[in-house]
Automatic annotation (TrEMBL), chain A:
The keyword Transmembrane applies. Keywords: Membrane, Transmembrane, Transmembrane helix. It comes from Rhodoplanes tepidamans. This is Tripartite tricarboxylate transporter permease. The chain crosses the membrane at residues 12-34, 46-67, 107-129, 136-161, 167-189, 257-280, 317-340, 352-375, 387-405, 468-486. It comes from the Bacteria.
TrEMBL record, chain B:
Residues 15-170 form the DUF1468 domain. It comes from Rhodoplanes tepidamans (Rhodoplanes cryptolactis). The lineage of its organism: Bacteria, Pseudomonadati, Pseudomonadota, Alphaproteobacteria, Hyphomicrobiales. Keywords: Membrane, Transmembrane, Transmembrane helix. The chain crosses the membrane at residues 12-30, 50-73, 94-115, 121-138, 145-165. This is Tripartite tricarboxylate transporter TctB family protein. InterPro entries: DUF1468. It comes from the Bacteria.
Amino acid sequence: MFEHLLNGFAVALLPLNLLIALCGCLVGTLIGVLPGLGPTATLAMLIPLVFSMPPATALILLTSVYYGSMYGGSTTSILVNIPGESASVITTIDGHKMAMQGRAGPALAVAAIGSFIAGTFSVLMLTFVGAPIARYALLFGPAEFFALMVFGLCTVASLTGTNVTKSIISTCLGLMIATIGIDLVSGAARFTFGNPFLQDGVDFVVVAIGMFALTEVVITAREVHEGTRAQIVKAGKVWISWSEFLYSLPAILRGTVFGFVIGMLPGAGATLSTFIAYNLEKRVCRHPERLGTGDIRGVANPESANNAASGASLVPLLTLGLPGGGATAVMLGALMMLDITPGPLMFEKHGAIVWTLIASMYVGNTLLLLLNWPLVNVFARVMRIPAMYLMPTVLVISTIGVWSLSYSAVDLVLTGAAGLLGYYMRVNKYPVEPLILGLILGGRLEQAYRQALIISKGSNMIFLEKPISLVLLICAVLFLFLPMLLKRSKQYKAVAETAEAA
Amino acid sequence: MDIATRGSLRTRLEGLVILLVAGGYLWETFDIPDFYQLPDTPGPKTFPELLGLVFAFMGLWLLVSPADIMARIRAKGAGVAASVPPAAPAQESLLARLGIDGYFVALWVVVLAYLWFMPDVGFPVATFVLLFAFTWLLGEKRLHILFGLSLGVTAVVFFGFKYGLNVRLPLGVLDLLAS
């Protein structure tokens, strides 16, 4: 194995490939920073380019862009409270508060370090135990996936807001928006009101930009006008201190492990892993009341989970041919265009390419960290731009993110509607995050539900008969009602008070 | 009306709205055609029906607000009347209580008008107007800064996205002028 890996390094470290990896990381980071243009869109843009390249070089470009854009997505979450892609939604909670406190530099730095540690861990796992552990993903049938997604939604609903009822309403609303469009199984149009533009459904970016970007811009504008905007503390230091690193290290490690385990399940993706990892972190860490108030662990944990899941999603892709999410599905397409079919025989048939890919992931991770060292300084300066000039520009770039999805005026109108709804929700303490997660998972949740019922010939008992599904559903119920059970606990009260204040 | 009562009334109104939305959603579910549905298998209506019912239940929960009712019963049982002394009647209007003022409306009108008119008016003109109006609303009144900033940002974003990232941005009225 080591011989193969060394051969892989020999190819990945060729000057041309090294340059391609560096450019890929840089381009991925810069495009990932733009709201609405996440890893999937970035990779799709590059597909025509990789045709003319040798397979190894093409794969190096794709993986480095993938890593770069995953990291870039967190930058806007921290700086302007707008997630660059779905996996960065949870980073906004603590990341932006840190930036407002003048700690944008350490927040960006811990995101880079966490991403590096998690990325390296997931590549190590892919190298040594990728194939055996990929088989555990096969234990997950439709019933188990349904239970896993219900578990994910329940953990988020129970902890993102102080009122469980409001969180459940928010989740339901997200799931209901996800049912708009053509039903993939029967082909029936649902809730389209005869509008052909709604047949493809509502993209999560449309709603997320409305709820995060538009509301943020309007709220900031109002605060600037009324003179109530919290003064951004002048950044003290740009890089993270040693004590801050040690403080966030356990959160990074926990995020890495949770992210890897959940990210490896096909279809679960990086987004779900960040939500679950953050909520579990809130349960197990010391001083959970600090999370949500600009705590560095609140950035370190989801960012590590996000990158560990990105690496983990390559495990089922390479060993089973199953893409873990949108970005890996695009990568699968690119691999097949290069005449490489991922699957159980991938290591035997295309060993040289696979090992080059794995070696390039080590190189890509290291380059990303080296690249972000100076970039953190540049990005942190964005906070110094006065809100009156920054916010209108953010609004324009966010609008382009929505427009570029399908060049549809309907998407822009929906963004406006989502903005108004999001504003009402934020003002009245309805958490927005469960709605977004419901919208992202809705399609897959329904698909798994229906597949499970088809297998069981319509009996809902299938969810209780499968052991993994049963355990996950029990955990989901426990998580949902835990706030009621814990109401008298001092620790819970502290968390609730902090969340209320935040 | 004291703050607590106002909050509880708003919760009930939200519950009513949620219940109505759930009703409309469930009504619309009946219009979904069932194509080639096999017996004992879930169709395209199954999941939306389940969701609609859960959503309606949550709306009903807010409308009834059982915790609120229980608290009142307990307070009555303990012989405590309204513990909060009646506040002086507020003289502010309903819109002011909801935090809606002229400035707030102007902000949303500018944002929503941009989203609505951008595809027809074209990206360059609409963006220039948006940047000018929004920055002015945010307190920048110096005309040369407003003009320069709006023009500069519009040009950089337009050329950057159109030629750098191949995003098809509509020219709108500029296209008509050119032809």
